[in-house]
Amino acid sequence: MNLANVLRVNAANHGDRTAIRFRGDIISYRGALDIVRALAAQLDAAGIARDDRVGLAMRDHPVHLLAHFAVAWLGAVIVPVDHRWTHAEQRRAAEAFDVKLLLTDDVAIDGVDCITPDPNGEPYPGQPAALSGADVLVSLSSGTTGRPKGALVTHENLYERFVSQWTAIGYDARDCFGLVTPLFFGAGRSFGMSLLTAGGSVMLAPPPIKPPEIAAALADPEVTAAFLPPTLLRRLLPLHEGTLLLGNIDYLIVSGEPLYADEARECREKICPNLVGYYASSEGGGISVLAAADLEAHADTVGIPTFRTEVSIVDGDGRPLGDNQVGRLRYRGPGVATRFLDEDGELQEAAADGWFYPGDLAERQPGGFIALRGRDKEVIIRGGVNVYPAEIERVLTSHSEVREAAVIGIADRERGETIAAFVAGNVGDTAELIDYCREHLAPYKVPATVQVLEALPKKVSGKIDRRALTASL
Questions:
Q1: List of residues 6+ apart from 354 with CB closer than 8 A
Q2: pLDDT-based confidence at 404, cuts 50/70/90?
Q3: In this structure, how many other beta carbons lie within 10 angstroms of the beta carbon of residue 133?
Q4: For residue 409, which of 426, 425, 389, 390 has the smallest C-alpha distance?
Q5: Is the Cβ–Cβ distance between 336 and 151 less than 8 Å?
Q6: 3-state class of 353 per DSSP?
Q7: 441-470 pLDDT per residue, tens
Q8: What is the pTM of this model?
Q9: Where are the domains of the chain?
Q10: Contact, 181 vs 187, CB < 8 A?
Q11: What is each CA distance from 228 to 163, 254, 281, 383, in whole angstroms?
Q12: What residues are paired with 54 via a beta bridge?
């Protein structure tokens, strides 16, 4: 299959239907297809062919969303690149994943071939490439050294993730999805592409926008579905003035980090009663869904496994555990990637049995409901965004005054976790270190605090004792 062909068929079947709304402009499915074909022609002229990797480093606008389908049209592979990253961060990602071309908004990056997308060019003359089992996306995370790594997601994988969303969450071609989160992140990209694949519409209200603007955008009567991480939901609560803030929405999806049970109930009372919990990972898509009808009784869980996804809780030796026993969560299904690029760009295959471990500890409760009980790896989840300590530590230790550094996440009611850094060395001004991080890292990776120690605590093995650092706070 080819995901771009689904969009082509949608345009053929209902070309006048609205595909994207953006700042007062409306793009029909026919118009969306014209843009996709123009971008495909531009990429083709630039030498992009099947299996080439194309980085998307644009701001959040319709051309960025449609560029995903243009890359897919040629059988090439999407590499998401955050436009908020520094040029050095974008260059590292391009090098790690052998990106042949980077689509940017009038930005030149030294050492990387970049072009600005032209949505008004001549259309690509051919049909979407006929594919089977071909990759369409490198779904990014970071490795233990902080360098990026990624899951190789096929057209079939991504389509199965969309089917799972339609089936388990419930939105379809009749819905308009209000998208207020970046397209770079998995949720924004996935929900945007999912609605266009289903034949529905997407209303883009891109960040940065303030809570009152988010509320106003999503209160649009045309909008029937939306996604918000808990961080944004919490910021909407003070806007409640006696009536439901988003009573028009049939599916208000919350994902990216845990939402406390009392907060979930308050959000249902003040923001929207149709709150749907969606637990997912970038490598495998949806894991479980907590339906609005189940939220009152099971608000302390992430729901039940989603459509065609098998979930298992196991001990350290991979043996399945019974109900109410905490262990490592693993899952498998048609949307789960089975091939990965490591930190050196080398291909790694998943285990033969197809299980993927997202790094969470969990227990299964009676009725199949899954409750998360912590993490078994060091990733920090800040405002629904994965942040990897090693990347920040590398920047800190590149400073002339820092001998060694360690970064941990601290539980935070509003953002899920905040970032705390510990350094040893001849450090004078910690504020200057934070400014240094701002120069070399995206804003959401910058530590909130930096503490200077004579030496970082170590385990017997010589590794930094992060638990000791957490206990010291």
A1: 332, 336, 338
A2: confident
A3: 9
A4: 389
A5: no
A6: coil
A7: 999 999 999 999 988 887 754 567 888 888
A8: 0.82
A9: 3-374, 380-471
A10: yes
A11: 20, 5, 16, 10
A12: 78, 101
